[in-house]
Please model this.
Amino acid sequence: MLSRILIRFARFLGDQYKVDILLMKRYYKTVNINSAVKGDYGSVLVIYTGGTIGMDFDKETGSLMPFDFEKIMEKVPELKRFDFQLTVLSFTRLLDSSDISVSHWLELSRIIYDFYEDYDGFVILHGTDTMAYSASALSFLLENLAKPVIFTGAQLPIGASRTDARDNLVTALEIASAKTQGQALVPEVCIYFDHLLLRGNRAKKVQNFNFTAFESANYPALAVAGIHIEYNLSLTIPPSSATFKIHQKMEDRIAIVKLFPGVNAEMLKPIFNADNVQGIVLETFGSGNAPTSSWFLNMVRDSIDQGMHILNVSQCNGGSVSQGKYITSKYLDDLGVIGAGDMTFEAAVTKMMFVLGKGLPADVIKEQLMYPLSGEKS
Ligand code: ASP
Model:
């Protein structure tokens, strides 16, 4: 608690970068893993938030519990062969990713901001369940990124014999430190999982049984890891030359409406009429289609008239919302619903939170929701 207050105080004073870093290191548990001399080699900061990847079997009880990263060399001896500096910073309370919230996204972006100059890349160890939301959120919160931020996790704990954690971690580290002519190879927020490097805000968890947990239906993989890591650099966002900055606000007063055949006014009224809801992500059918009943269209019209923003995202994983293709979506277009194009649901939710959090005029909010901000839509 005291460290937290001191961190805030140091930030308040302004140019207190070194004090800040020192206190951050004291507040979070940090472990220096690799002895490579900084300056000669690359360096990666691993931020451990929790999730299955960081679990090991307790010798006495046999139950899974969070793994102590000080012992990571025993579990992943491959790390000894890396010639870059590796630091692990651990969240004080390790989380199942179902407990991730907006405050954790702001915290992650703050950590990356505070250590941005000190490391060549960042790896975030995170539970798989909400990893696509967190990666999408960070893709918006981190602006003008010139370094990789790679999320990874595992389907089996790092302590299990057939674990996928080791491969995922080792390859994520390699990608986070990969450079060409002094520039990061993949300077964007990504998810690396089971051989695939995916743009974070294009990825989706699609499996809880196989190792292939993530998919990016509307954007090709940025790299495929086989014997070599084959990068597809024509698909990556080029490193920004503008000053890196972060955003520290997101609007969480948003709602999700998933349409289904049989949905009725009584069910939706409390959401559309709620005073504190600022925006709705509307999950529609096919290419963005919705019922044409007058109760539904009136509800949409009234809430937009009262200043609500509605983003139309498809229930299909692949393909795009195309308002106007069918008459069942043309009405939405005419009423001012914003088509999310080929955005994932996770990107749409976090983008809505991000854009509304900026406190912009209504027409600018609409424009920002409509156009790509960070490669999240085509
Ligand atoms: N429930 C876990 C989590 O998301 C699953 C995982 O780590 O894969 O934190």
Residues 12-20 have pLDDT under 50 and may be disordered. Residues 212 and 249 are 33 Å apart (CA to CA). Residues 51-52, 96-98, 127-129, 153 surround aspartic acid (CB under 6 Å).
